[in-house]
Amino acid sequence: MKSSLNLVFWGYLLVLLHLEIGIDIIPDPVGYFLIALGCFGLREHYPIAPKAGIIAVGLIFLSVPSVFVNLSKVHSLGWGIYTPVLIFVKLILAYFLFLILKNIVKDYNHAALIARTNTVYTFYITSYLLSLAYASFAMNVSGDFWIAGGVVIAFATFIMSIIFLVQIRAIRKAEPVQVSPIMEA
Q: What pTM did the predictor assign?
């Protein structure tokens, strides 16, 4: 299970990082591939995991244009539709990942991790929903208030993504150690 959670962690980290020199040096499809591998690795213990894996596979293909186009710098209608769709599908993936994480911490029976996972889930989903709502209205509204609001929402979403990574890492480290009984001869 640790290796599957590691794949999800590293995949999500690759999706979060953007280093562009003409094209995205750290392409999102590679991150989604790692997330899919991690989810399919969890399918034996968590039946919801393959659904997250399938969404991650879909995002491999859906995110290919983001390798070649800096989505924050284009303002045409097509890209204006593509970006919210991509965010929405990422939100669906995050929802399923959180369902998996909630089941994992429930199996660990770790009260602090259960509470923290629920809190991170609430704030993460809220920040991404605000981001989607902002993207929907920002096309039609101008002014300093909307620009400031966009910066605040983008910052909150980025911080929640980092906290999500920290949460995955904490859950991975909290995995109970399997102790095998000593067999007497």
A: 0.83
